[in-house]
Amino acid sequence: MIVEMRKEAEQAEIDQVVAQARSLGFDVQLNHGTEKTVVAILGSDTGLVPSDTFALLPGVESVQRIMKPYKLASRTFKPGGTIARVAGIEIGGPQLVIMAGPCAVESEEQVFQTAQAVKKAGAKILRGGAYKPRTSPFSFQGLQEEGLRILSRVRDAVGMPIITEVMDTHEVDLVARHADILQVGARNMQNYSLLREVGKAGRPVVLKRGFSCTVNEWLTAADYILAEGNENVILCERGIRTFEDSTRFSLDVSSLPVVHKFSHLPIIVDPSHPAGHFEYVPALAKAGIAAGADGLLVEVHPNPAQALVDGLQSLTFSNFEKLMAELTLLAQALGRSV
Fold first, then answer.
1. CA 72/CA 40 separation, integer angstroms
2. Strands 27-32 and 37-42
3. pTM score over 0.85
4. Rounded to whole angstroms, how far apart are CA atoms 109 and 114?
5. Over the stretch 193-206, which tens digit does the pLDDT of each residue have?
6. Which residue of 9, 79, 243, 328 shows the fewest CB atoms closer than 10 Å?
7. Helix pair angle (281-290, 317-333), 10° resolution
8. Burial of 162 (0-12, 13-18, 19+ CB in 10 A)
């Protein structure tokens, strides 16, 4: 249930709505907009409460019931778009934000070289996996804590904030001490314990779409993070599993306008995972931007042929530089910048 306060509502009137909701056993989230405050009343039994319970309180302009399963991620709760901020960088604004780097941290030299190259080409955020969720337990699992230390040193040396994946609730605090953005991967999109913990970590979160999940399920998963008071949530479309096997996954570009219509959260695209092959990455990256993405998450490696993880879908430095030049022209045509 959403309670929209009048523009001139006083703080005491807002407090009365909050107190009424909590007296009925509901949770509350506030959205203090530039003109008015919106109160989200959360709980499984809100449908049993008459709207007049809140509509008749002083300062209340309207009461709406959100029929979608997601509440806090909905534009009904927050009509304007959210801009996520990290290290002075805004994600969801007019500038497209490119996050680039190796799928897996392999050495300090590898990460340092990549950071220098992608920053020179125009990327704003360095990506790199310290912990790697692999299908096989015998595959390379990442350098883990040493990988985090490498990312931290490279960030300090090059001056780029870093994004890296967190896989386990027990590792959230450790990863948050090193990373500027926490990434929740596709396999963990519905790991609700992990979502709650990253919501409490005080870091922006990139939430990847599960490869067999609907948009509704994805946005409802985002509610778990938002419900912990973390407003810096960024969605990432990375392709879904379909019958098509000519690519690794099927990039669902239609999800971008749908998300923009129904949610206030910024959304980026990972073109590397759906492509599965470096030749397709530029086309999918440009398709994502054209469909409304606020940025990209791209895999780049100094020598993809020797990469320990996902070398086939990683761009070389020169290919990434070429892609950034093409994105600059595309962004200009869309009234945005890189």
1. 7
2. antiparallel
3. yes
4. 8
5. 999 999 999 999 99
6. 243
7. 20
8. buried
